Amino acid sequence: MTQVKEPKDVKDLTEQESQQLIRALYLKATKYLADKGIVTNSVVAEDSRYLLPIVSVWKLKTLSDGTLWVISGEVPSDHIPVSTAATAQEALRHFSMKWQLQSENILRNANGDKTQMQFAQLLVKRAEGLHHLCNDDKLWK
Question: For the chain, what are the domain ranges?
């Protein structure tokens, strides 16, 4: 059996591998919305951003819910109305704050539920990671 080698660094990705990752992140975002009963119409590619393979934030037009920011990748998938944030950077900042608040609420109400506590800890870690990405100016120029 042939073993597929994973690139050690995103810089080692070919253009085709990068496009496949971007497509996978996009499909994950649209599947997340579909699972919520939200049908996408189109993507506003010029406003969407991704940092392979970690995170993507998509500006997606939907058939019934207007335009949404949708986050996917090695983070929990989530969405907010585009009116909440003007740019992808602001959307990531919003998700970071939202997840910090959600994790506090979960921890307050977990009543010792290990699964809930683990999820809250995951949200905190991902929120902190997003916070660092939002404040890294060289990513947003």
Answer: 10-139
Taking the whole predicted model, whether its pTM rises above 0.70 is answered as yes
CA 55-101-68 angle, 5° bins: 45
Name the nearest CA neighbour of 103 among 116, 115, 85.
116
Give the closest residue to 78 by CA, choosing from 54, 62, 101, 94.
Answer: 94
As given in the structure block, the two tokens for residue 67 are 């335009």
Which residues have CB under 8 Å from 73's CB, separation 6+? 25, 28, 50, 51, 53, 54, 55, 56
pLDDT digits (tens, 9 = 90+) for 44-88: 999 999 988 889 999 999 999 899 999 999 999 999 999 999 999
Predicted confidence (pLDDT) per residue in 2-48, tens digit: 344 444 466 778 889 889 999 999 999 999 999 999 999 999 999 99
